[in-house]
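Pinned message: reference record for GDP-mannose pyrophosphatase
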Amino acid sequence: MSIKTVSSREVYRNAWTRVREDVIERANGVRGIYGVVDKDPACIVIPLERTAEGEFVTLVEQYRYTVLRRAFEFPQGGWETADVVAEELARGELREETGLIAERMTELAALQIAYGVLNQRQHVFLAEGLTQGEAELEPEEHDLTVHRVSVREFEEMLLDGRVVDNCTASAWGVYLVWRGRQRG
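Predicted structure (tokens):
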């Protein structure tokens, strides 16, 4: 290991996030400090429909305080507990935010979100065979809206700045690689 933890102390905690400050020592003996944000596992879901009219994805749009703007993204989130079954979490977040129920869920990957600062694993799921149910929004999602868009429009949104969420972009990239391998 090229970095050793000398000491660690929690400097902040709430229901969603823990922040710690670690004193570290590098292999060359130089010490430093790392600020680390720890969060419980999360998921992101690509709700994909194939119809006679084409392929469509479902996005949610909500106000993201950290960037002071509304943003489009795939349904995603966590349950603020370390002990989650990834598929149950993905099904729950999909239903909660969009009302969609998936016949098939395929886990495509498990990625780390912004691992230069954040320690949070995010499971990437493809949801297919979708049927509409009732959304069950949490209080902080009061302004969330749901949008069904063509894959072509979604990809335009990635390029023109309407979708700026790196998790949504990376999930789509993982899906494209997975799809390419499925086709041989």
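Pinned by admin. Summary line: The mean pLDDT is 94.
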